[in-house]
Amino acid sequence: MKNLEDLSGLIDELYLDELQQGNTDLGELEIYAASKLHSWNVVVTAVDKDCKVVSKFIYIVENL
Its domain of life (predicted)? Predict the structure, then answer.
């Protein structure tokens, strides 16, 4: 993974729509790769059907 094209289709509008509709599972590898490439800390929060937080995970990018 050296450029944005390597992440094409991993986290895009279609992928996010599929997540929201429950048609696909969250891909840990995709989120990890995006966080590293963009140097972003990413917070993943899972909620139940009542929108109560059931789990939270943070991918942290260390400053190099």
Answer: Eukaryota
* pLDDT tens per residue across span 28-39: 767 777 777 777
DSSP structure string for 17-34: HHHHHTSS---HHHHHHH
Predicted TM-score (pTM) of this structure? 0.46
Q: How confident is the model at residue 10 (pLDDT cuts 50, 70, 90)?
A: low
Angle CA 20–46–39, to nearest 5? 90
Q: How far is Cα 34 from Cα 27, in angstroms, rounded to an integer? A: 11
Please name the amino acid found at residue 10.
L
Structure tokens, 64: 């190099």
